[in-house]
Amino acid sequence: MAGEKHVTQHALRQRPVPMRDGQVVGYVHSTESFGAVDGPGIRFVVFVQGCNMRCQFCHNPDTWKKNVGTQMTSDEILKMALPYRQFWGKKGGITLSGGEILVQIEFAIELFTKCKKLGINTCLDTCGQPFTRREPFFSKFKQLMEVTDILLVDIKHINSDEHRKLTGYRNENILDMCQYLSDIGKPVWIRHVLIPQRTDYDNYLAQLGDYIKTLKNVKKVEVLPYHTLGVPKYHEMGIKYALEGIEPPTPDRVKNAERLLHVADYRGYLED
Ligand code: SF4
């Protein structure tokens, strides 16, 4: 029974889930009514607060802090989103993004469960950092996958040491999440931010391209060129910006990354 004891002790360490009116409360940073780049079709996007990672290139450092922002229940989100349903068509729907949505996994489960009952397409935009196969997280993750149609997964760096330098965390559990999603056949779009002096090296890009080829569930691969639009937020918040002086990649380097990541081979999203 040692295993059971372990699970119980783990469960006791769980943080309390905030509730209101019998519903989980989510901490929301902002919403977007007509998201066109956050999953298939036109989508209502909910950006939540809270992220453990500290990506050097993050353009939303204002989403890092947990337990702040607008407190909203899933019913309140649906009330905001449903007036836009006529624009979603067959592909569109609701996306949960961040920050990192998996730090509020109970909120995601509740909202997406209601979405599926209403026939709404659900998309989860995640960096995967909170993922673990340990309990109580793993059971919750499985529950969430039952009501999630597609995931946008950011792989920040294929090399774990470099991943830690870039984000503060290693990537083994993130790649394990990718493996799990492949094993259960859950559709994903993989995204990778191309940053000169950080991720824009042919050997790493080729490694990442090879790795993605081992997954069986990838519908789309996107290279996102690093940009500096978030820099003023760092200055306003008094946080040192680690990529000061690094310019966005040239179009040639973007094309090179797209070639090494075999972007053209992933056309599954066009069939959805
Ligand atoms: S995972 Fe996303 S929200 Fe978190 S620090 Fe990185 S880029 Fe920012």
Automatic annotation (TrEMBL):
Reaction equations catalysed: glycyl-[formate C-acetyltransferase] + reduced [flavodoxin] + S-adenosyl-L-methionine = glycin-2-yl radical-[formate C-acetyltransferase] + semiquinone [flavodoxin] + 5'-deoxyadenosine + L-methionine + H(+)
Details of cofactor binding: Binds 1 [4Fe-4S] cluster. The cluster is coordinated with 3 cysteines and an exchangeable S-adenosyl-L-methionine.
Domain spans labelled Radical SAM core: 37-272
Lineage: Bacteria, Bacillati, Bacillota, Bacilli, Lactobacillales
Name of the protein in question: Pyruvate formate-lyase-activating enzyme
Similarity comment: family membership: Belongs to the organic radical-activating enzymes family.
Keywords: 4Fe-4S, Cytoplasm, Iron, Iron-sulfur, Lyase, Metal-binding, Oxidoreductase, Pyruvate, S-adenosyl-L-methionine
Subcellular location(s) per record: Cytoplasm
Listed EC numbers: 1.97.1.4
Cellular component terms per the entry's GO annotation: cytoplasm
